[in-house]
Amino acid sequence: MADSLVKQVQLACDKLDQVILGKSQQIRLAVTCLLSSGHLLIEDLPGMGKTTLAHGLASIFGLDDSRIQFTSDMLPADILGVSVFDAANGGFVFHPGPIFSQLLLADEINRTTPKTQSALLEAMEEGQVTQDGETRYLPQPFFVIATQNPLTQFGTFPLPESQLDRFLMRINLGYPSAEAERALLMRGDHSSRRDRIAAVMNPETLAEAQKACRSVHASADLVHYIQRLVQYTRDADSFSYGVSPRGALALLRCAKSWAWLNDRQHVVPEDVQHVLEAVVGHRVRAAEDMAGHTATRLVHELLSSVDVMANG
Amino acid sequence: MKRTPKAVDKISRSAVIWQLIACVAVVLPLFSWLPTWVILLGVACVGARLMIHSGRWSFPHWSIRLVLVIAVGVGLLMTFNRDASLNAMVALLTVGLSLKLLEIYRRRDALVLLYVALFVAASVFLFEQGILVALYMLCAVLLVIAALVSVWQDPLREEMFRPLKYAWRLVLPALPLMLVLFFIFPRIGPLWSVELDRSSARTGLSESMSPGDISQLTRSDELAFRAVFEGEPPAPAERYWRALVLSAFDGREWTPGFSASSSASTEELHSIGETIQYEIVQERSNQRWLFALDVPVVAPQQARLTIPRTLLGNTEVSQRIQYSAESARQYFLGAELSSDQLDFFRRIPANSNPRTQALARQWFDEADQDTLRLIDRIFRHFNETFVYTLEPQPLGRHSVDDFLFQTQQGFCEHFASATAVLLRSVGVPSRIVTGYQGGEWNASQGYLTLRQYDAHAWVEVWLEGRGWVRIDPTTAVAPERIEMSADQLFSGQAGFLADSPFISRVGRQGWLLQARMQYDSLNFAWQRWVLNYHHQQQNLLQDWLGDLSAWKMILVLLIPASTVLGFISWRLFGRRSIQDPIDRQLQKLFRKLEQQGYYREPGETLKRFSHRLAQTDPELAQVLLPVAQAYETLHYLPVDQLKERKLLLDEINNASRKLK
After folding, report:
1. What pLDDT is stored for residue B506 in this prediction?
2. Residues in CB range of B211: below 8 A, 6 or more apart
3. Chain B residues within 8 A of A242 when measuring between CB atoms
4. Are the beta carbons of B468 and B460 closer than 8 angstroms?
5. In the prediction, which pLDDT does B7 show?
6. Interface test with B, best of A222, A223, A271, A309 (most B CBs within 10 A)
7. Interface contact flag, B636 A266, Cβ < 8 Å
8. Whole-angstrom Cα distance, residue B213 to residue B207?
9. Rounded to an integer, what distance in angstroms lies between the CA atom of residue B132 and that of residue B129?
10. pLDDT on residue B22
11. In this structure, which of A144, B524, B565, B614 has its CB flanked by the most CB atoms within 10 Å?
12. Phi first, then psi: what are they for B245, rounded to 5°?
């Protein structure tokens, strides 16, 4: 059963590869994030395929999805929903907002005001929405893919560090390779391409896969390695601040999912190294960096400085 | 975002208090050696740091600190007048310590401070080496170590007295090591030396003698020296300790007369009967002469014999020294001296003390020109009307005339001087000997203590066929001075111990005396066996180990030292490789790969490494891959550890063999 589950997820990944060309690594990271029950932040320039990826994920895992395009005049109610007086029944009726869906695509989250941002992020963290004194639970699974323009773009509200920490992973897609881009151009512009992706999984099998991911074995030596990595970010002078314990937990969780996705029942250091940039990149900042554009360099330093074989 | 100093850099609040305690503890014993303003500065710095500690003041601005440093530097230059003496060095250390106190905040500052404090603690022993000071310094070092421990204390979980507990546990195991090193570590002379303060007062007898000099000494109970005898000690009346011979008289003052470096040979000594051997522990006097029982046969190592057979040290006695000597109890001294040589001992200024000279001639005639009868006459005269007192009246230019005919009261130097002048007036060769007489016998420990109040002066007269003979005019006027100790005799007299602390004046009877004797003997044992241990060490080690030079001993010491160091380094660095054969073998394998030019990056797992190798050297990668697989299995899979360890070890060894 477990085998077939892995096969299913791998098949899903392969199918997504056909939608977004030449980004198999990013796709697998996104799937890992989903398998780890975490939220994903995609950071890139407009038109790089962020939305396509989000839609593709939703379709292939059979999740009902909704999308919010964030703007600077949005209010929390626009996301969470609003109670409207129903004259016919003589009472208030709650009209759920777009957040009540299994996969929420929060497009350009940094375009909106911090007030609205935090309403979304709170809901992400709690898995519930409380309004008018009534608590409503969000559907399961609940997965947020937020996209964000690089912060140097005009008219944005950068997410503060504390909010960034709520996203399990941050990835950027980057420009496609020359080959992939040629293939993309040959294929022509198909805006409705996602409709043709058939669902490979459903929410139930996804939940099972998530459960399976959690039970992947992580040995003491591996946990030591993760701890050394995290400790390095706290001690080294090149880091302004280090990874929190939540970040360390996230790293282990993602490494497990990555291992499972690669059809293994145990985590090896390579798994940690694969997911490291995506998990840790937005949780650290270089000592001299003010805008947060050096994550790649820092993670590279981290990878090459911490000895993976120093056991004990 | 500015990076705040890491929390671990800052020392805890109780650590600051510990620093202050440690610094005060090490500087305290130096109080009497430091200039007053240095002490005041230290107190002010401690006070200021306490004010900062309580939050009332803030840390001084760097400009204030700069001004302080310059002011203190100028102050030191002015106080010590650019004289780089030991006191100046210690004062420099102390002001440095005091000023550093002002800025302790981070761990680095505290460490610097405490290392300097240890240095200051060591410098205390340059001035004081008594047993109490040593005990005190042990406690002070304990406090410094407690302060060191407190520096590493977590500021969030500080506890005031826990560092002391740890310090005690650290110092205790070091004590046996200290003892071993004390016993066997060779005493090597200093590689360089700093001059002790030249202005330090010379104590004890001075090089010349004028009326009142020796009675002045009775005002002090300072220790002069102690002696231990081989066999029975001499009787009290025999305990004449010879220090200086004074042969030239100017009418008032006696001086040695010939220079110490004169080339004339030492006066001949013929000993009759047994000699007596003894050992002396002499206190610091800043003078060159040593002490010997009348009359020394040979000079100890540290000294040589002068012409009139006194001991002249090779250097000034600037610290406590120990030496052994041998003396003749019955002897002929200088019997062969020619009449020309003796002329020197007949000289007195022609116009001085006219009445004395006349009296001497009159008595000499009455005694039929017989020297012994003349001496007898002089002593009788003293005995009849003279008073032996500690506080004689001052004498004028013709001191002996004044003494003999007017005041008729005096101390030993008055009687000795008068006797010698009387004898010289009629052409009998005579001279003054100064030194110590008597002493306090500590029966339980078997040693003699001589203090400054035991200082004495007597006369040596030259008799045909007999040579120099000791006569002591004091016996004529106050025989009890010779029979009893000066201590017993003078106590109660005005002026005795007038300059000494109250405690030594009252502690002279009953249980107090007992306690004093006990403490004294303890101190003496301390001096002989701890401070001057290097004398015994040579013999002790020779008994145990045979003939050894200092350098051989160092070599011998190197063996246990390197064993200990090796053991520690093994514990620190080599333990893992010895504990885990896998890691050791793996390191070997890596070294072999490095010889071929392949280095594993720290972040590279074995598997990645072998994949990388595969691109350049597929064969090598094939060798390494099974190792990587086994390594991964052992470390990251839920497997039977023992079995997998063995498998991995096999694979590593296998790969190592293939690499050859």
Report:
1. 55
2. B252, B392, B394, B395, B399, B403, B410, B413, B414, B417
3. none
4. yes
5. 46
6. A309
7. yes
8. 11
9. 8
10. 93
11. A144
12. -115, 125
HEC sequence for B285-349: CCCCEECEECCEEECCCCEEECCCCCEEECCCCCCCEEEEEEEEEEEEECCCCCHHHHHHHHCCC
**pLDDT band (50, 70, 90) for residue A2:** very low
Chain B interface includes A289 (CB < 8 A): no
The pLDDT assigned to B11 comes to 81
pLDDT > 60? residue A194: no
B640 touches chain A (CB under 8 A): no
Query: How far is the C-alpha of A177 from the C-alpha of B424, rounded, in Å?
Result: 125
What does the pLDDT read at residue B142? Answer: 93
Alpha-carbon span B118 to B96, nearest angstrom: 13
**Domain range annotation of chain B:** 5-193, 201-508, 581-659
Task: For chain A, state the CA radius of gyration.
Answer: 20
DSSP label at residue B235: P
Pairwise CB contact (< 8 Å): B635 & A266: no
Express each pLDDT in A23-66 by its tens digit: 889 999 999 999 999 999 988 887 788 888 888 888 888 888 88
Do A270 and B608 make contact, defined as CB atoms within 8 angstroms? yes
Helix (H) or strand (E) holding B505: helix B502-506
Q: Which residues of A touch B7 (CB under 8 A)?
A: none
CA B605 to chain centre: 63
Per the rule left: phi > 0, alpha: psi between -120 and 50, beta: everything else, B82 is left
Task: Check if the interface score ipTM surpasses 0.90.
Answer: no
pLDDT at B188: 65
User: What is the phi/psi pair of residue B562, to 5°?
Assistant: -70, -30
Round to whole Å and give the CA distance between B549 and A141.
86
Q: Which residues contact B618 (CB under 8 A, 6 or more apart)?
A: none
Count of all residues that appear for chain B in the document: 660
**What distances in angstroms separate CA B382 from CA A229, B174, B400, B449, one per listed residue?**
100, 64, 13, 30
Q: Cβ A222–B576 below 8 Å, yes or no? A: no
- DSSP at B200: S
Q: Is the pLDDT of residue A290 over 80?
A: no
Active site residues of B: 412, 456, 472
Task: Determine the Cα angle at B157 with ends B156 and B158, to 5°.
Answer: 105
Residue A257 confidence (pLDDT): 94
Q: Is the confidence at residue A190, as pLDDT, over 70?
A: no
- Nearest Cα residue in chain A from B6: A235
Output the DSSP codes for A85-141. EETTTTEEEEEE-TTSSSEEEEETGGGS-HHHHHHHHHHHHHSEEEETTEEEEPPSS
**Are B602 and A222 an interchain contact pair (Cβ–Cβ within 8 Å)?**
no
**In this structure, are residues B67 and B99 in contact, taking their beta carbons and an 8 Å threshold?**
no
Q: Nearest-CA distance from A204 to chain B in Å? A: 29
Chain B: nearest CA to A285, how far in angstroms?
Answer: 10
**How far out from the chain centre does Cα B451 lie?**
19
Q: Residue window 191-230, chain A: list those with CB within 8 Å of chain B.
A: 217, 219, 221-222
Domains and CATH numbers, chain A: 2-208 (3.40.50.300), 216-305 (1.10.8.80)
CA of B649 to nearest chain A CA: how many angstroms apart?
16
pTM above 0.90, yes or no: no
User: Which tokens hold the place of A160?
Assistant: 């503060």
Grouping H, G, I as helix, E, B as strand and the rest as coil, residue B256 is: coil
Rounded to 5 degrees, what are φ and ψ at B306? Answer: -90, 180
Contacts of B419 (CB under 8 A, 6+ apart): B375, B378, B430, B459, B471, B473
Query: Mean pLDDT, to the nearest integer, of A62-80?
Result: 87
Question: Is residue A288 within 8 angstroms of chain B, CB to CB?
Answer: no
Query: Are the beta carbons of B605 and A309 separated by less than 8 Å?
Result: yes
- Stretches where chain B sits below pLDDT 50 are 1-8, 197-200, 260-261
Instruction: Answer whether residue A3 shows pLDDT above 60.
Output: no
